[in-house]
Design brief:
159 residues; mainly alpha; 84% helix; elongated
Length: 159
């Protein structure tokens, strides 16, 4: 009976993990890893310790990178610390405005931050684009990690 509860929890975590890749409120890769771990605890699958360790490391690294990549993108496109801070503030405000706010928040925040630093719209837009590119790269990394974990989940389940 416990196996079925763990299996259900694993399926819920896998689905929530995939959704969490697009919704910043949910930690996508860690939830996906939780799904794999729950399945591991059942009689339906047996992941090796190495596989679990590698998937855990992937979840941790991608989660950390998700916070670093947007700031890196801003800086890579010539943004200053004002643009990076603006992108962070924009993301926080954007969380309350739903998916469009989550996508546009870092862009607008970086542009506003750069305009405060330097009154040059072209420069500010370039840094804002870097922030948006970094944010989208973070989403891509999270999706890749969660799809890898989903693959292992399904593979073990149907084995």
């Amino acid at each position: 009976m416990a196996d079925y509860f763990l299996l259900a929890a694993g399926i819920i975590c896998i689905i929530a993990g995939l959704i969490g890749c697009l919704v910043p409120v949910l930690p996508g890769p860690p939830l996906s890893f939780a799904g794999v771990f729950f399945l591991h605890l059942t009689r339906f699958a047996d992941f090796g310790k190495t596989t679990l360790g590698i998937l855990a490391i992937i979840a941790i690294v991608v989660t950390i990178l998700d916070y670093i990549v947007p700031v890196w993108g801003t800086r890579k496109f010539g943004g200053s610390k004002y643009g990076a801070r603006g992108a962070t503030v924009g993301l926080i405000i954007g969380l309350f405005l739903g998916p469009p706010g989550i996508i546009l928040g870092p862009l607008i925040g970086a542009v506003v931050g750069e305009l405060i630093f330097k009154d040059d719209l072209k420069y500010a837009l370039k840094a804002g684009f870097g922030s948006l590119l970094g944010f989208m790269t973070g989403i891509g990394l999270k999706l890749i990690a969660s799809f890898i974990m989903t693959f292992y989940f399904v593979k073990e389940l149907i084995k």
